[in-house]
């Protein structure tokens, strides 16, 4: 019987895109994430957002470890550090957003949260777009932050959603990096273990839960729907999509969040808030599409590269020959 070769844990290239697999993974991640959050809101109101989110991370880490069964002894120092950074970011992002979703409606929460990926895309812009798109997004956030009765939503919820947005931006960068360093789901498993190690003590110190054992079965079940499945699907999507296409697809998440908030939690939004969500989505899509529209075509980039190479070779041919080094020296003075 032939021996089964062990799975490598060395860095590898991203998986090639195949049809609609990348967009399909991204859409599946958004649906699972927002559905899981909508179903968890009653649990968070009963047992506390910090306790619920940290326990879900703990159960997700246990389930992922049982599934992936990683060999921790084979990981390199670089892999451990990358997973540690991603785990800390997961803990911050998850606890902040779950707390925001328990304080303000899901549509506004995910819209404010989306400012993180939007800022990531705006960094690469030049000229008027670098100023106009953040202003457009800020207008949208201001619109969704005002409730149906013209009053500002819970300020703490808005701040937690903004904090989750900062974590989301860093999460996208780190998730793609970890996805290239590990094979299969070993990187996700190790990152979830670190996330639970950060989140559980923090939750018990900051907001000790009351009667949390009663909600354990429901929390354990929802841990599969969110965060385990969304994290796994996003890692698979980022292996198959570039950052630009991934960001465009993820801009649909505020709409999905608002839809589940309406269907499951009966959260209604004013027309002003719906318009604000659409403004943020428009700013996000434009932030990704504008660099592609203004960048030169592949043919022009190749022509420019050839011209630079020929110019360099011509200058090198007409330049004087370098003087021979003095005997005994190995470097020029």
Feature tags:
13 helices; 333 residues; mainly alpha; single chain
Structure at a glance:
It is built from 13 helices and no strands. The chain has 333 residues and is an all-alpha fold.
Explain this structure.
- There is one protein chain.
- It is globular and about 50 Å long.
- The protein has 13 helices and no strands.
- The longest helix is centred in the first third of the chain and has 27 residues, at 21-47.
- The chain has one domain.
- The protein is an all-alpha fold.
Q: Characterize the overall form.
A: globular
Fraction in beta strands: under 5%
Total number of distinct structural domains: 1
Spans of at least 5 consecutive residues with low confidence: 1-19, 309-319, 321-333
Overall structural class, as computed from helix and strand content, comes to mainly alpha
From the N-terminal CA to the C-terminal CA, the straight-line distance is 64 Å
* DSSP summary, beta strand count: 0
Radius of gyration: 24 Å
Largest sheet: none
């Amino acid at each position: 019987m032939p021996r089964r070769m062990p799975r490598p844990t060395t860095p590898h290239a991203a998986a090639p895109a195949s049809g609609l697999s990348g967009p399909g993974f991204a859409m599946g991640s958004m649906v699972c994430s927002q559905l899981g959050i909508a179903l968890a809101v009653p649990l968070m109101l009963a047992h506390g957002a910090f306790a619920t989110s940290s326990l879900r991370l703990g159960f997700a880490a246990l389930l992922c470890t049982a599934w992936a069964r990683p060999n921790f002894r084979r990981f390199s120092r670089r892999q451990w550090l990358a997973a540690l950074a991603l785990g800390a970011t997961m803990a911050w992002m998850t606890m902040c957003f779950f707390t925001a979703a328990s304080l303000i409606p899901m549509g506004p929460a995910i819209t404010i949260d989306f400012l993180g990926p939007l800022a990531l895309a705006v960094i690469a812009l030049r000229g008027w777009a670098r100023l106009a798109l953040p202003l457009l997004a800020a207008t949208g956030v201001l619109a969704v932050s005002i409730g149906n009765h013209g009053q500002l939503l819970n300020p703490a919820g808005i701040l937690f959603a903004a904090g989750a947005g900062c974590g989301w931006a860093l999460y996208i960068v780190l998730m793609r990096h970890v996805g290239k360093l590990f094979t299969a789901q070993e990187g996700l498993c190790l990152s979830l273990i670190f996330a639970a190690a950060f989140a559980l003590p923090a939750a018990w110190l900051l907001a000790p839960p009351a009667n949390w054992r009663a909600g354990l079965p429901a929390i354990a079940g929802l841990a599969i729907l969110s965060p385990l499945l969304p994290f796994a699907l996003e890692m698979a999507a980022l292996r198959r999509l570039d950052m630009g296409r991934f960001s465009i697809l993820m801009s649909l998440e505020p709409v999905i969040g608002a839809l589940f908030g309406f269907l499951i939690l009966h959260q209604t939004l004013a027309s002003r808030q719906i318009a604000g969500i659409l403004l943020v989505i428009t700013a996000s899509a434009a932030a990704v599409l504008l660099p592609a529209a203004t960048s030169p075509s592949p043919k022009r980039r190749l022509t420019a590269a050839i011209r630079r190479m020929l110019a360099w070779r011509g200058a090198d041919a007409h330049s004087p020959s370098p003087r021979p080094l003095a005997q005994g020296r190995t470097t020029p003075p």
